[in-house]
Specification:
Blueprint: E1 5-11, H1 15-27, E2 32-37, H2 44-48, E3 54-58, H3 61-66, H4 75-88, E4 94-97, E5 102-106, H5 111-116, E6 124-127, E7 129-133, E8 142-145, H6 150-157, E9 178-182, E10 188-190, E11 195-197, E12 205-208, E13 215-219, H7 225-230, H8 232-237, H9 243-252, H10 258-270, H11 274-282, E14 286-289, H12 293-301
Parallel strand pairs: 1-2, 1-4, 2-3, 6-12, 7-13
Antiparallel strand pairs: 4-9, 5-13, 6-9, 7-8, 8-14, 10-11
Helix pairs in contact: 1-12
């Protein structure tokens, strides 16, 4: 038994990243993808708009005006409004609200059967985050660190643990995860990590912890230095980093050998050497998966996928 589901996302990424994202969810069995492009001239639109399961929406000034917004409105406000618009177009099944660097993974059976198993009273399912890190040479597959308590983060990262901040549970990105929302609910508004009713009322949510092994939101944040560096200025002004990390980066930007120092910081935050990998494993804060996102994209889009 399986349940129908769709993906909704607002994107503004390099073409390979958009194709990776779309391919992952097509392969995972999504009934359709509603992709809203913050750049209405995004080069991915002509590539993806011919696919029968992908609905490409160019976020033109007219699109934002219909939602009572402008292209200059704060991004998170536009994001929430656009995904709420996408949600309200669906009347059946489930909508998964994710970003371009987030890949939902279910350990057994696939996403459709996972959703079909949910009790009818469940209105939303939030799956916790696992965050990708670059592993040492010789380790097969992808390595993901899991949310952990502050003491565990200190044992893994030592003094660098302070850069992760007190609320992100040993991750650079968000620990909250992302949500499937049952379609057809009235007066529902989508936010980045979950949905809520008008006035702030909560939905009947099931939370799926990543340590349970059933599912994980695989967050591919910051793995590539050049992509991380290109988004640095934006994240510094949009609260994308914790306060300690923001202060550290701003200090490094004043140094004469800034690129060398930033590369070292990036490696410290987004990679693990054999010692740190062993520490993650000892804390039960490590998920190792034999997945190949590039391979999925190449299989589905072939020559149109300009991998690395």
């Amino acid at each position: 038994m399986t349940a129908p589901w769709r993906v909704g996302a607002i994107l503004n990424e390099p073409l390979p990243d958009t194709l990776r994202f779309a391919a992952w969810y097509l392969e995972a069995g999504a009934e359709g993808l509603t992709l809203l492009f913050d750049n209405p001239h995004d080069p991915a639109i002509p590539v993806l708009s011919t696919h029968p399961r992908i609905d490409c929406v160019a976020c033109t000034p007219e699109f934002w005006a219909d939602l009572g917004l402008t292209p200059e409105t704060r991004f998170t406000k536009r994001q929430n409004a656009a995904l709420t618009w996408a949600y309200r177009r669906q009347t059946e099944g489930w909508l998964l609200n994710v970003d371009a660097d987030e890949f939902m993974w279910v350990s057994e059976g696939g996403i459709g059967p996972f959703l079909a198993e949910q009790p009818t009273q469940v209105e939303a399912i939030r799956v916790e985050t696992a965050e990708i890190v670059a592993g040492p040479d010789g380790v097969a597959g992808q390595i993901y660190r899991l949310p952990m308590e502050r003491d565990a983060a200190r044992r893994v990262y030592g003094d660098s643990a302070a850069l992760f901040g007190p609320r992100r549970k040993g991750l650079i990105g968000h620990p909250q995860g992302k949500s499937f929302i049952r379609c057809g609910l009235k007066n529902v508004f989508l936010r980045q990590h979950w949905a809520q009713r008008q006035g702030g009322g909560e939905l009947a949510e099931t939370f799926v912890p990543v340590r349970g092994g059933a599912a994980a939101l695989l967050h591919h944040i910051g793995l590539d230095y050049e992509v991380w560096r290109a988004k640095l200025d934006w994240r510094l002004v949009s609260s994308g980093f914790t306060v300690p990390l923001t202060e550290r980066i701003r200090a490094l930007l004043e140094e004469p050998d800034v690129e060398t120092r930033l590369r070292a910081l990036h490696g410290d935050l987004h990679g693990v050497d054999p010692v740190r990998l062993d520490r993650l494993r000892a804390e039960g804060a490590c998920l190792e998966l034999p997945i190949d996102v590039d391979g999925v994209a190449a299989q589905i889009f072939g020559a149109r996928f300009p991998a690395g």
